[in-house]
């Protein structure tokens, strides 16, 4: 077993934490809404029922939430690589 660290430790900022938790929450909410639509369809709801009430919002969350969460995760990875690169140059 190696006791060497993989690289210099860089402090994690507040923006990184906010971005990570927001992406996780958005992805989880999107998956929950996706399953709600599947369950609603399986119980016999017709197309007209999905166009009224809260269902348009429930249908829009996976449509916009999953791609947005993906972009946030990519941004988080880029920020992490930049932060570790700067920390490596300093040491």
Automatic annotation (TrEMBL):
Transmembrane segments: 21-42, 54-82
Keywords: Membrane, Transmembrane, Transmembrane helix
The name this protein goes by in its record: Multidrug ABC transporter ATPase
């Amino acid at each position: 077993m190696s006791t060497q660290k993989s690289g210099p430790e860089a402090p994690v900022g507040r923006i990184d934490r906010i971005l990570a938790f927001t992406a996780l929450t958005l992805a989880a909410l999107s998956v929950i809404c996706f399953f709600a639509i599947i369950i609603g369809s399986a119980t016999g709801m017709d197309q007209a029922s999905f166009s009224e009430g809260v269902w348009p919002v429930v249908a829009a969350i996976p449509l916009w939430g999953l791609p947005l969460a993906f972009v946030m995760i990519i941004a988080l990875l880029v920020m992490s690589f930049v932060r570790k690169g700067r920390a490596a140059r300093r040491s």
